[in-house]
Specification:
259 residues, 2 domains, binds S-adenosylmethionine, alpha/beta, 8-stranded mixed β-sheet
């Protein structure tokens, strides 16, 4: 690719990502989240924030029953795509461009979510702790925080290895190649993309860097921020949840802001 400038994550790749069936991940996450929230509180959350909301799929679904929904993402390109997430009948979603390491919401919420391994983008302890502090500040007392993340095993064996053609449509072609460093538990995926512009193709490149953490370390970060881990689940490849074990590629955390 010569000396092509690297685009920030989810700027060039955003539209290709939003096109794919990857959106079904957040749809399933919302179903799990509303079910578990209902079991914990006997109600539906009427105030919700989805952090690293991407193209806003989850926000749209929460907006069907909530009165306030905030969607936060660092990528303006992803937020631009979220316009189409607005649906008649739901409350209007308030989208804000912010870095999750220092995000705020105008009013505290009962449910806060961060889905589809977005939390793995926190690649330093300082970043993760800063994010957790923001989560604490954004939640009402007894508010619930749910997120998923790649486990150490998941990043090393699934996301962080191999090469694939991610997208091959009439307007986008995206190939990726990943490397994983087991010392740091950090993996980097290089995206090599082509986007159709009229009769020609524009080439671009992005790099996404994720870090995996043990459940024990995440529990420490949560506790350090005043958040209480209620349960952790194994997110199976068929998107069902079951008892967490060491074979898990992805973990699903249910957390509360302790009173
Ligand atoms: C895998 S996508 C998931 C998007 C959405 N949650 C979903 O389920 O489809 C990861 C998202 O995290 C966002 N992101 C990455 N780093 C971020 C940061 N520091 N602050 C806010 N958003 C971030 C990206 O822009 C992208 O939209």
């Amino acid at each position: 690719m010569g000396n092509l400038t690297l685009a920030p994550p989810y700027t060039e790749f955003g539209p290709a990502f939003a096109l794919t069936e990857e959106q079904t991940f957040s749809e399933t996450f919302v179903l799990h989240a509303l079910k578990i929230y209902g079991q914990l509180t006997g109600s539906k959350p009427d105030t919700v924030a989805d952090v690293a909301c991407g193209a806003g799929t989850a926000c749209r679904l929460f907006a069907e029953s909530a009165r306030t929904v905030y969607g936060i993402d660092i990528s303006q390109q992803m937020l631009n795509l979220s316009e189409r997430a607005q649906r008649p009948g739901g409350c209007p979603v308030q989208f804000r461009q912010m870095d999750m390491q220092c995000f705020t919401v105008p009013t505290s919420v009962k449910l806060l979510t961060c889905m589809y391994d977005s939390i793995n983008f926190m690649t330093t302890s300082a970043a993760m702790m800063s994010f957790m502090k923001c989560v604490y500040d954004a939640l009402e007392l007894e508010g619930v925080f749910m997120f998923d993340m790649y486990t150490l095993r998941g990043l090393a064996m699934l996301w962080g290895v191999g090469a694939e053609i991610h997208t091959n449509t009439s307007d986008y072609f995206v190939a990726t190649s990943s490397v994983h460093d087991k010392e740091t538990q950090i993996a980097t995926k290089s995206f090599f993309g082509f986007t159709r512009v009229g009769a020609s193709w524009r080439k671009w490149q992005e790099k996404h860097t994720l870090r995996a953490y043990s459940v024990d370390l995440m529990t420490e970060y949560l506790r350090g921020a005043g958040l209480e881990l209620l349960s952790v689940w194994k997110w199976n490849l068929d998107a069902s949840l079951s008892r967490f074990d060491d074979d898990a590629y992805r973990a699903f955390f249910v957390v509360r802001k302790a009173s």
